[in-house]
Design goal:
single chain; alpha+beta
Length: 137
């Protein structure tokens, strides 16, 4: 299969030398950079497909004709911001809003810490084992 000469769709700062690299997109929708820097620096083509590299190119590129139609598949989707949840104020039986101070709220009894009952059981088993051991002597 002959190689495709993909068109340049943007420019981005090269992650290796800091120069300007052209951005291209392959048939699988992955972005890649071509950096043929000035002087002795010649980074070449960077076709890394990891999410971090693809995200860097996508976020920092200056697109020539706007963003490409297809995003690399491993970029996180633009997630909508979560909705703001407003807790309703307590209301009395007659419909009036009640002002409640945090210190007036019922405090829940403290919950046992994780593993506390296991420690007690282990302690009881150790005590029984010691008693049985001492009874043999």
């Amino acid at each position: 299969m002959p190689r495709a000469n993909n068109p340049t769709i943007g420019k981005v700062k090269c992650q290796t030398c800091g120069g300007l690299a052209s951005v291209k997109q392959n048939a699988a929708s992955f972005l890649y950079t071509c950096c043929f820097g000035e002087g002795t620096q010649n980074c070449g083509i960077n076709q890394q497909k990891g999410a971090a590299v693809q995200g860097y190119i996508w976020s920092n590129a200056e697109w020539i004709d706007g963003e490409p139609e297809t995003r690399p598949h491993n970029l996180p989707a633009d997630e909508p911001k979560p909705p703001v949840v407003v807790e309703p104020s307590p209301v009395s039986d007659d419909g009036d809003v009640i002002d409640v101070k945090p210190e007036e709220l019922e405090q829940l009894p403290p919950q046992p810490q994780k593993g506390e009952s296991a420690r007690k059981l282990l302690g009881a088993a150790f005590t029984v084992c010691c008693a049985v051991f001492l009874m043999k002597f």
